[in-house]
Give the backbone structure.
Amino acid sequence: MLTVTLRGLERDGIVTRTVHAAVPPRVDYELTPLGETLLDTIGQLVAWADVHIGEIEAARADYDARSCPSACQEEAAGLEQSA
């Protein structure tokens, strides 16, 4: 899925893709000048998420409680405790 997304961004002119002949294979992606015009907008999205993180986490917990079997919830709780 990541490759499909990156290829779409490349097609749209937002990133460039550079393949390096190396072992193991290496591919670099870089923002184009068009892609750089998105930095302010993306920064605003990140700032919004920072302000609303509590609400986002509450919504996720509510969704998980409604959507996930109890075994899944126990596993998620175990992951949070080990973090």
Remarks:
- The first strand starts at residue 15 and ends at 20.
- Strands lie at 15-20, 26-31.
- The domain at 1-37 is CATH 1.10.10.10 (Arc Repressor Mutant, subunit A).
